[in-house]
Amino acid sequence: MTATHYQVIAHYFARPNQVRAVLALLAELARASRQEPANLSYEFFQNGEDPEHIVILERYVDAAGFERHRDSEHFQRIGAGQIIPLLTSRRVERYEGSAEE
Amino acid sequence: MTATHYQVIAHYFARPNQVRAVLALLAELARASRQEPANLSYEFFQNGEDPEHIVILERYVDAAGFERHRDSEHFQRIGAGQIIPLLTSRRVERYEGSAEE
Fold first, then answer.
1. Number of independent structural domains in chain A
2. Domain holding B79: CATH number?
3. What whole-number distance in Å separates Cα of residue B88 and Cα of residue B86?
4. Of A17, B22, B91, B98, which residue is the least packed, with the fewest Cβ within 10 Å?
5. Strands of the sheet with A39-47, listed across from one edge
């Protein structure tokens, strides 16, 4: 079955002494994001070779769903307001298409 | 700049007492995979909320490059031969396209 969706891979690089704080905030942001109507999944992972490198795999019904996530109160408060200031850099990759199940 | 490539997201679910072993084997497989001519990146991550859930983000020049990876001696020996038997399940997602840099 081929399902179409909008897959986001967000790479976050935490300041060395802020890794634990970023992970805790991401858990809070994940819970809120999963409630969004257009969100299909929201999971965050820590690099096995570089603990400061965290990746978020977010899947939405479509690009508009991701934009609504970015405009949401919880992303603005937790993501933009609290997490991003704790990062040295970040990179967001977007894929439209299908993932054969 | 829009670059086209072949992005693979592989979700591995390790047996509860095999997480450390899987991570160590993935480090070995990562080193070998990064030497492949068609490999652009190979990184593995552990879920921040479920340590048994490991994701590999692999990027290749094209689909053929990923197939050559699957046929490689090191994937057959380490991936298929040693890691996969330590998993309860796995899911591989493939995306062709571009990631705006």
1. 1
2. 3.30.70.100
3. 7
4. A17
5. A87-100, A2-14, A53-60, A39-47, B39-47, B53-60, B2-14, B87-100
Domain range for B72: 26-53+61-87
Q: Where are the beta strands (DSSP E) in chain B?
A: 2-14, 39-47, 53-60, 87-100
Do the domain assignments include residue A65?
yes
Q: What is the mean pLDDT of residues B71-96?
A: 97
Domain annotation covers residue A100? no
List of chain B residues whose C-beta atoms are within 8 Å of the C-beta of residue A95? 7, 95, 97, 99
B47: Cβ contacts below 8 Å, ≥ 6 apart: A43, A44, A45, B53, B54, B55
Token pair listed for B22: 């899987």
Residue B48 inside a domain? The answer is yes
**Closest CB from B54, B96, B99 relative to A94:** B99
Say which residues have a Cβ less than 8 Å from residue A76's Cβ, sequence separation at least 6. Answer: none
User: For residue B83, is it within any domain?
Assistant: yes
All residues of chain A having their beta carbon less than 8 Å from the beta carbon of residue B49 are: 27, 30, 43-44
State the average pLDDT for chain A: 94
